[in-house]
Known about the structure:
- It is built from 11 helices and no strands.
- It is mostly helical.
- It has one domain.
- Helix 2 runs parallel beside helix 10, helix 6 (152-179) packs antiparallel against helix 7 and helix 8 runs antiparallel to helix 9.
- The chain starts with a helix and ends with a helix.
- 46% of the residues are buried.
Amino acid sequence: MKRNAFTGAIVWCSLLIASLTGAIDLIWIELLFLYAPLVIVPLGLHLTGLAETGFVASLPERVAEKVHIFAALAVVASFFSVPGIIAAILACAWIVLCGLLALGGLMRTLQGGLLSLDTACPTVAFLYSLIGAAWFVASRLGLNPLGFQEPIVLLTAVHFHFAGFAASLLARSANRTLVRSSATPVAAALLRIVILGVLIGPALLAAGFVAGPRVKLAGALIVALSEVGLATLFVVALKHIARFAAQFLLTLSAASVAFSMALAAVWAIGEYPLQQFVNLDQMERYHGTANAFGFTLCGLLGWTLAARPSQTEVQTQ
């Protein structure tokens, strides 16, 4: 999956340059979404594999890893067709891949995947990816599910890929590191609260768009507080991480969360009385960018480096 992530990064950077030069017509929210299948998902799957060394992934998960790059390129191709049948058919490649991951998540659940936070995180992450993929297909088909219009439809797909899929896997890495550090009972309880908030927050926020402004406000604040709490866990975990590069990346990730989630909280508070302090365009530009490149990318790279055995450990094995 490392190779897929590297290839995806090259493709995404090419799309960004082409968009900036006017060679293609992609808006920022579309580029943010494309960043997920091209870079974030393969990095997340690679981190999952590192965390589960010796664990045999289910057949659906292994198939998903094999076909990932083809599905991601089909996602790119779908944006070169106007919303409709052709774009949706291309987009369906992604829902198939995420469906395989979700099936793997359900198999994890049947094996007790929700009985501990460590196994619940990838299970929930894979299920969130499928929800995000479904909203993406709806976006490319030109549908308005539940009466929502663009850019809300595509934003929902972005939300479940970053706040759902990626954040759940980042939470797992922080949880693993701190649990092994023999945390005190109080610290362990706070750790569980933060991880649970990360896992349930995205679903609650999405439900708030249907249930009403109070639920939306509660969901947004849970997402913001839990991810700020997760950033704090990153900082606490730094002393248990040997590699300086990993420490640096996780510090950047934590700092990015402080900014992006503060902005999310301001947006949510403004949404409740319907007096916007921050509009959707600003949320895409600032919150989305900080969350995608600062929190998510730096976090995934940092925890990936932290999970790899050091040269000294390799020599002693």
